[in-house]
Specification:
The chain has about 210 residues and is mainly alpha-helical. The protein has 7 helices and 4 strands, in the order αββααβαβααα. It has one domain (about 5-55, about 70-210). The chain has helices at about 5-35, 105-110, 120-125, 135-145, 165, 175-190, 195-210, and strands at about 45-50, 75-80, 130, 160. α1 (about 5-35) runs antiparallel to α3. It is globular, with a radius of gyration of 17 Å.
Length: about 210
């Protein structure tokens, strides 16, 4: 890992550690509310595509342990459950009026509180606080097939928030993905400790008072 990348990682971990205690208190209150308003587990687990650590990428390298190239290291992301519990939920685009989302879930999503458990993903090393948002494997492959160079964003760790997240809403179309990709690549070009701290500072007001979509 390059020296500047190590410093960026260290700052992200320190901020995650500082945020963990207050986040635990908030998550405790949310957990009670989730249990009182819907059936199912409080924490939702989902597979996401993370950083591609192969440099350079050589698909035919004999020592490559992957039998399938998913674009990056797949990991389990943690979220507070915002949907009704169902036997199987296929990977799909986010929807404005998704009927699966509970009333409490809408509030949590609007304020991004459902993503608080991802602080543990940061501490585990799966993510940073700041970086491109990780996609589900099936959607990632679909987007890569339609949006050229989308996989270039996998050269850095994924994040809870990022430059694209503070400027644009949830992606619901391939065109949305193209616009977000431009900001993700801009972030990668300009990536530094100060950039990450600035994005963190701009994220907090969006949690307290999110913009109308």
């Amino acid at each position: 890992m390059a020296p500047h990348a190590t410093l960026i990682r260290a700052v992200n971990v320190v901020v995650a550690l500082a945020a963990t205690l207050p986040a635990l208190l908030v998550m405790g209150l949310i957990a009670i509310a989730v249990c009182m308003t819907s059936q199912g587990p409080v924490v939702y687990r989902q597979r996401r595509v993370g950083r591609d650590r192969r440099q350079p990428r050589v698909r035919s390298r004999p020592t490559d342990r992957r039998t399938r190239d998913l674009g990056g290291q797949v990991f389990t992301v943690y979220k507070l459950r915002t949907m009704e519990q169902r036997p199987y939920q296929a990977e799909r685009w986010a929807e404005v009026d998704d009927p699966r989302i509970t009333p409490l879930g809408r509030f949590l999503r609007r304020h991004h509180l459902d993503e608080l458990p991802q602080l543990f993903n940061v501490l585990r090393g799966d993510m940073n606080i700041v970086g491109p948002r990780p996609e589900q494997p099936h959607l990632f492959n679909e987007i890569c097939a339609r949006v050229r160079t989308f996989n270039r964003r996998q050269c850095v760790p994924p994040g809870i928030t990022g430059l694209a997240q503070i400027h644009l809403p949830y992606a619901r179309t391939f065109e949305d993905c193209r616009r977000k990709l431009e900001l993700d690549l801009q972030y990668i070009r300009e990536r530094s400790v100060w950039t990450d701290l600035a994005i963190m500072a701009r994220t907090f007001p969006m949690v307290v008072s999110p913009p109308q979509e």
